[in-house]
């Protein structure tokens, strides 16, 4: 009963996102102007000049993105591997930069075997592990991200007042019924209710969404090609999904979630295929680099999502570098570090490749050889000083070595006010606790404890645990007042106000 209810609440969380992501509005014609490059292929010029309403809209959308991220952290299983998140975020950021001045907010990787991706106003893009594992190349993964970026850049999710009210009422009614059924332990009923509500709202919104999907195809393909990927990847990947629909219909099975929220037609598929032919192919060097990266990404995600076995990894390690790295992780996680290091000798990639560095450090960390892990990561991080994945891994290594000051120095950029980097806040919390333990006097101990409690409050905030976050800050404030630490008190009170605002916000 409890497991069923938990599964249903996961579905509820997706329904919450659906309230935002399935409500389409007409694109702002002033934001994007369609033109023709003389080849018959449409291209777009993007306006970056904000209007008076844009500032309110941007603030509101950022609030929606933050709320959505808290919901995701609270309810959904995630792949929080820093390297995986780095690769996908970097890919999306590169493409986003070609059409938007505002950076993407976050890119959570959801542990779900279904093929799905979604975008939320404010620049949050979610992608399921099933999407990555269904792709055959980095360009196909990029095509899905480009499509979602296009939805955001074209403002397809901005709300039209009257239509939005009607759709929200319809979906909220279904959502409340879902929550009620879930609370009563009716898991199957809850899922059915949610599906009914989403179907009804999808039908209501269909007249508004079809043109937006076609526009997202056009703009997304332009983004894809401009970023050095094969434009043919978009119709190729979406064609796979279309074939899956036909198979599922024959078997009376559910279609991929992505196809439910992004309905395809034969006309759209034909247009996309024709448009792809007018775009240049990437260079051979670019294709090779993308193939290497995807090989690493595919096998790492497959291992982390528990979709592979040691037998499969061993068989594929003979010809795949990505499978070798995944096999090394598999062996290290089972205490077989000697075997893992033996596989390491077969790695042909540059030893300073971030994926190789992180995997080697993982082996040493599991074997409690923290100094060796730190040495490897320091060497790699010196070459790639701005990479978040290497910074976090090295900070964790310093944590194992009881060097909290060095750990904190690495994550300063990731724990600024307003940061939603959950893993960075976790490292900060552990580092400040170490500093408290190492302190020579009571005041130093209490100051470190204050910062530890503040870090803990941020962890709780981004997990949607508002009461716990406020309690942590209250404890920190009490300590700060005992030492008359005026600046710390002001900082903590500012945090309290921010968390209270987040708690009361409802999109």
Keywords:
507 residues; mainly alpha; Serine Threonine Protein Phosphatase 5, Tetratricopeptide repeat; three-stranded mixed β-sheet; two-stranded antiparallel ribbon; 5 strands; globular
Question: Any overview of this molecule?
Answer:
There is one protein chain. By secondary structure, the protein is mostly helical. The chain folds into 2 domains: 2-282, no CATH class; 402-507, Serine Threonine Protein Phosphatase 5, Tetratricopeptide repeat (Alpha Horseshoe). The protein contains 22 helices and 5 strands. The chain has helices spanning 2-21, 52-75, 82-96, 129-134, 138-153, 161-183, 187-226, 233-250, 257-261, 266-276, 284-304, 310-316, 321-333, 337-344, 354-366, 370-383, 388-400, 404-411, 422-438, 442-462, 466-482, 486-504; strands at 32-36, 42-46, 109-110, 117-120, 124-128. The strands form 2 sheets. A 3-stranded mixed sheet has the order 3-5-4, sandwiched between helices. The longest helix is centred in the middle third of the chain and has 40 residues, at 187-226. It is globular, with a radius of gyration of 24 Å. The two termini are 30 Å apart. The model is unreliable at 1-50 and 169-208 (pLDDT under 50).
Quick gist of this model?
The chain is mainly α. The chain has helices at residues 2-21, 52-75, 82-96, 129-134, 138-153, 161-183, 187-226, 233-250, 257-261, 266-276, 284-304, 310-316, 321-333, 337-344, 354-366, 370-383, 388-400, 404-411, 422-438, 442-462, 466-482, 486-504, and strands at residues 32-36, 42-46, 109-110, 117-120, 124-128.
């Amino acid at each position: 009963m409890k497991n069923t209810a938990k599964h249903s609440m996961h579905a509820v969380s997706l329904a919450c996102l659906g309230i935002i992501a399935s409500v389409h509005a007409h694109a702002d014609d002033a934001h994007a102007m369609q033109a023709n490059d003389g080849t018959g292929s449409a291209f777009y010029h993007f306006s970056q000049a904000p209007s008076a309403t844009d500032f309110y809209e941007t603030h509101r959308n950022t609030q929606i993105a933050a709320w959505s991220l808290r919901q995701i952290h609270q309810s959904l299983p995630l792949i929080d591997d820093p390297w995986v998140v780095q690769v996908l975020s970097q890919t999306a950021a590169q493409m986003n930069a070609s059409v938007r001045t505002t950076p993407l907010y976050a890119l959570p990787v959801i542990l779900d075997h279904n093929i799905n991706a979604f975008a939320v106003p404010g620049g949050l893009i979610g992608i399921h592990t099933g999407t990555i594992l269904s792709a055959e190349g980095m360009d196909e993964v990029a095509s899905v991200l480009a499509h979602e970026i296009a939805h955001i850049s074209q403002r397809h999710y901005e709300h039209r007042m009257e239509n939005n009210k009607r759709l929200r009422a319809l979906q909220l009614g279904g959502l409340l019924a879902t929550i009620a059924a879930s609370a009563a332990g009716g898991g199957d009923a809850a899922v059915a209710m949610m599906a009914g509500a989403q179907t009804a709202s999808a039908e209501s919104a269909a007249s508004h969404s079809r043109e937006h999907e076609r526009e997202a195809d056009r703009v997304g393909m332009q983004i894809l090609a401009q970023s050095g990927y094969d434009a043919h990847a978009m119709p190729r990947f979406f064609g796979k999904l279309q074939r899956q629909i036909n198979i599922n219909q024959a078997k009376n099975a559910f279609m991929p979630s992505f196809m439910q929220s992004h309905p395809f037609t034969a006309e759209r598929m034909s247009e996309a295929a024709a448009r792809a032919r007018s775009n240049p192919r990437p260079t051979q060097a670019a294709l090779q680099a993308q193939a290497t990266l995807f090989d690493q990404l595919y096998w790492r995600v497959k291992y982390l999502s528990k979709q592979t076995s040691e037998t499969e990894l061993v068989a594929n390690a003979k010809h795949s570098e990505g499978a070798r790295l995944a096999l090394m992780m598999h062996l290290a996680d089972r205490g077989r570090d000697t075997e893992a290091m033996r596989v390491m000798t077969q790695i042909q990639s540059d030893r300073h490749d971030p994926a190789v560095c992180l995997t080697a450090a993982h082996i040493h960390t599991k074997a409690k050889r923290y100094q060796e892990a730190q040495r490897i990561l320091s060497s790699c991080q010196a070459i790639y000083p701005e990479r978040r994945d290497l910074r976090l891994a090295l900070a964790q290594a310093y944590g194992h070595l009881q060097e909290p000051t060095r750990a904190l120095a690495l994550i300063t950029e990731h724990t600024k006010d307003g940061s939603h980097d959950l893993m960075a806040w976790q490292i900060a919390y552990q580092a400040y606790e170490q500093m408290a333990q190492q302190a020579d006097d009571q005041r130093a101990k209490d100051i470190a404890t204050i910062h530890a409690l503040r870090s803990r409050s941020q962890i709780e905030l981004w997990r949607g645990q508002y009461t716990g976050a406020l309690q942590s800050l209250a404890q920190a404030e009490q300590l700060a007042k005992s030492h008359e630490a005026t600046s710390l008190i002001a900082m903590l009170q500012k945090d309290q106000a921010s968390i209270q605002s987040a708690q009361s916000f409802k999109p």
